[in-house]
Design goal:
This protein is mainly alpha-helical. It has one domain. Strands 1-4 form a two-stranded antiparallel ribbon. A two-stranded antiparallel ribbon has the order 2-3. Strand 2 and strand 3 form a beta hairpin. About 7% of the residues have low confidence.
């Protein structure tokens, strides 16, 4: 990931510009997960619209972004320099869920804690 994108992402997470959402990139009420904030920084006009229902959260997945449904695919994440393992941990931190790959459980983290993690691990 470019240093400029990383710095911008961390700054956006620490700003009051984004309300934190869970369970998808952007929810129906305008809340963003941490990956949704990154998507919005990359292309704020990339939102495709309603994406259906997520049974895990009994909630809408919300908007897809450039065809990315619920989150970034492994291929897309890695193409922008976001290692898949870090992306997965960030999603789990944002939503307070278990990482199915590692079995590690995360309590819900706010954007400030997620920004700290990005600074340390990316």
């Amino acid at each position: 990931m470019s240093p400029e994108l990383k710095v911008g992402w961390v700054a956006a997470l620490r700003s009051d510009e984004y309300e934190q959402g869970r369970g998808g990139l952007r929810d129906s009420e305008g809340g963003h997960c941490c990956i949704g904030v990154l998507a919005d920084l990359i292309d704020p006009n990339g939102w495709d619209g309603w994406d259906g229902w997520d049974e895990r959260y009994s909630d809408s997945i919300g908007d897809s972004w450039k065809g990315q449904t619920g989150s970034f695919s492994r291929e897309y994440a890695e193409s922008i320099g976001l290692p898949y393992a870090i992306k997965t941990n960030l999603e789990c931190m944002n939503d307070g869920i278990e990482n199915e790959q590692t079995g590690e459980h995360f309590d819900p983290c706010d954007f400030e804690e997620i920004a700290d993690y990005i600074e340390e691990h990316l």
